[in-house]
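In the current project phase, the collection of sequences with tokenised folds has grown. A representative record is quoted in full directly below:
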Amino acid sequence: MTSISDSDRRVLVVGAGKVAAQLVPALARAGWAVSGVWSRTPAHAAAVAGTVSGTPVLTSLDFTQVPPATIYLLAVPDAVVPAVLQQARFPAGSVVAHTSGTVPVAIFAAYPALRGGVFYPLQTFSPGRAINWEQVPLCIEAAEPSAETLLLELARSLSPQRTQLVATPQRQALHVAAVFACNFTNHLLGISHQLMAEAGLPLQLLEPLVRETVDKALAHSPFSVQTGPAVRNDQPTLAAHQAALAAHPAWQNLYAQLTIDIQRQQGQEPSISDSQL
């Protein structure tokens, strides 16, 4: 049963970064009216608002002076959430949710006039890449039931099958895991890309390997399907790789650290000691 009438499907977005740029048009496609977009950089707010015809650009954090929204989403960096909550004025009783993976829902305890919550999309956002919101896990948390109901309805309108309630401790653990799965993996792929370029080879040569690695890791416990010279304790190959990385001492050290961690995870005595790094 829908708890929000069509006339009440209104969301105001605070922030105009990578998340907001993807979220605003997605909300409109899902049948929500975007009541406005605010950013400390007006040009950024105008750019995001411009993705949905007729969306107002807001110039003040006093949201009591504009038509009220049903939900206010704070799509701003984690470090900015406290400042926005301190400076903004919301109509009493507003549902206000941040999109952070780490900021606890308890941050709203200092604002009893608000119904605070979390609307955390577990995805990486980059300019020029369209997101399929139906495939994005949306992690919802709220301090009280009515806010939870509204945020769940909003989330399910975007991602019907991947919306779920996730409490602060689990969301924070999820965010750490996501950094390993996404950000660190991307960094390692960047290293691979540069090493390939230095050898005069295209990154595309690695594509089948990368896809098989990810598919296999998602189908099994990743540690159980670990392969490579570290698992085999292949000393000649490990030494050759260390030598090949001599021009990149930071990557040489990272290679050694990862080798040590893989061997320890596999129950082996590391072939490189911490004192050698």
Summary: The mean pLDDT is 95. The chain has three domains: 7-166, 167-221, 226-277. Residues 168-198 form the longest helix (31 residues). The CA atoms of residues 60 and 225 lie 53 Å apart.
